[in-house]
Design goal:
Helix content is 48%, strand content 13%. The chain contains 16 helices and twelve strands. α4 packs antiparallel against α5 and α12 packs antiparallel against α13. The termini are far apart.
């Protein structure tokens, strides 16, 4: 009677596959299948971790599933292209040796069989794992040195192609740069990340990988310092030598918007004009819009105890009040107050550059042995405190592009009507505060006095 074939698994892995074409794992799989055939093993399972490193300690789903199946006896042999495809961490080698010993697992590699049932075989596996780990550490050291060198030279991060730039990161792709500016301007004008993502995908603008945009990708894009010709290295912001897509002030504004705790972090944009903008005059809670089948859109305070009112007449009153004020000849005063002092901003930007240069000089003096560690720390603390104060003042002076089109509009109402809801909401939040009173017992008529609209101080 013929001996049943060994039930074997093939495990293939490659650390990086930026194209997603699986060419590396496909080559490994073909050679592993040939190896199993020479051994007379029947491949019953194939496990693949594509674009997953084995040296970082992050989860490898297929590898974990294979270990579970080996433990359960589903398969009793493994074929790999090389031992470093199986693992590059000594602790995992020990785990696999223990499993192989308990469950009598056979292991074969395309480069040569490894008998884990013998002392020599286990020693070879351990040596191979130690060598792989040492190579990982050498590679990490080389990458850190290269990153430090690139940062000092003002070069961008060595990574995949960034949207808006050529593969070397040193030249702008005009069409993509225009999309970046459009997205940033929309965000600063009050648009949500969700609506920007929806717009990009509706116009079939693709990512550098050729796929549609996701909210997380758009958020990273608009907040990326690379587009202001800046890069982060450790705890420093350094100037780059590549062309900027947006200026530093615009980038600063974006970071201010993205870090605003009042912004929702997920989900679709609000559809109602005053939802999350107006407040309840009784409890101070925010007002939210809700849709009811029989009554339409209602505004309710978050406590649900005070305000429960029809939204349409309130929206109409707020819009009419806003447009009436913005249509007056002196409306330019509202916009100019929002824009800040340009001369003051220039003065602060000059201070910012000077403070950063002094921080760099301190570091150079310390490296040259002209300062000790205590002097470096004391000087850095003072300069960082001054820099934070200048940065905070600059943040407060940044102009809001949400008002830009209204400031130059010949027909304020038509311009307003063309805006999306999220931009209208941003403008209302910039210019006025709105508080809603409870409707009052038995109230059947809309009382304009129950809606408090106050213009924000300059």
């Amino acid at each position: 009677m013929a001996k049943p074939a060994t039930a074997a698994a093939v495990y293939v892995r490659i650390s990086s596959d930026p194209t997603g074409q699986r060419l590396g794992v496909a080559r490994q799989l073909k050679e592993c299948q040939a190896k199993a055939a020479t051994l007379g093993w029947a491949i019953t399972r194939t496990y693949e971790d594509n674009d997953v490193s084995a040296s970082t300690g992050k989860r490898r789903p297929a590898y974990e599933q294979m270990l579970s199946d080996l433990e359960a006896g589903v398969v009793n042999a493994v074929v790999v292209w090389d031992l470093d495809r199986l693992t590059r961490r000594p602790i995992e080698i020990e785990h696999f040796i223990d499993l192989a010993d308990r469950r009598k697992i056979a292991l074969a590699s395309v480069g040569g069989d490894v008998d884990l049932s013998t002392d020599n075989g286990r020693m070879f596996a351990r040596i191979k794992g130690a060598v792989a780990r040492a190579e990982v550490e050498r590679k990490s050291a080389r990458q850190k040195a290269a990153n430090a060198q690139r940062a000092a030279a003002g070069l961008p991060h060595a990574s995949g192609r960034a949207f808006g730039y050529t593969p070397d990161g040193m030249k702008v792709v005009p069409q993509e740069a225009a999309e970046i500016r459009r997205a940033v301007e929309a965000l600063l004008a009050g648009a949500s990340i969700h609506s920007i993502t929806r717009d990009l995908n509706a116009r079939q603008i693709l990512t550098t990988k050729g796929g549609p945009w996701r909210n997380t990708e758009v958020r990273r894009m608009v907040g990326n310092p690379r587009y202001a010709a800046l890069r982060r290295y450790r705890d420093q912001t350094l100037a780059g030598r590549w062309p900027a897509v947006i200026d530093a002030d615009m980038h600063r504004s974006v970071l201010g918007v993205l870090s605003d705790p009042r912004r929702t972090k997920a989900g679709p944009p609000r559809q109602h004009l005053l939802s999350g903008v107006a407040t309840c005059s009784e409890c101070g809670g925010r007002i939210f819009g809700v849709m009811e089948k029989t009554k339409g859109v209602l505004y309710r305070c978050e406590s649900r105890r005070h305000v429960n009112r029809q939204a349409a007449p309130i929206d109409a009153l707020v819009t009419t009040t806003l447009l009436e004020r913005l249509s007056r000849p002196d409306a330019v005063d509202l916009f100019s107050r929002q824009q800040g002092d340009e001369n003051g901003a220039a003065r602060l930007r000059k201070q910012e550059v000077t403070l950063r240069a002094r921080l760099d000089a301190l570091a150079e003096d310390y490296a040259a042995g002209l300062l000790d560690r205590a002097q470096l720390q004391a000087g850095s603390a003072r300069l960082h405190a001054d820099l934070e104060a200048v940065t905070a003042e600059l943040d407060g002076m940044v102009r809001s592009p949400a008002l830009a089109d209204l400031a130059s509009a010949s027909d304020v109402e038509a311009t307003w009507n063309a805006f999306e809801v999220d931009r209208k909401r941003a403008i209302i939040g910039l210019l006025v505060t709105v508080r809603l009173d409870p409707p009052g017992r038995g109230a059947r008529r809309f009382d304009t006095a129950s809606v408090h609209i106050e213009w924000r101080a300059a």
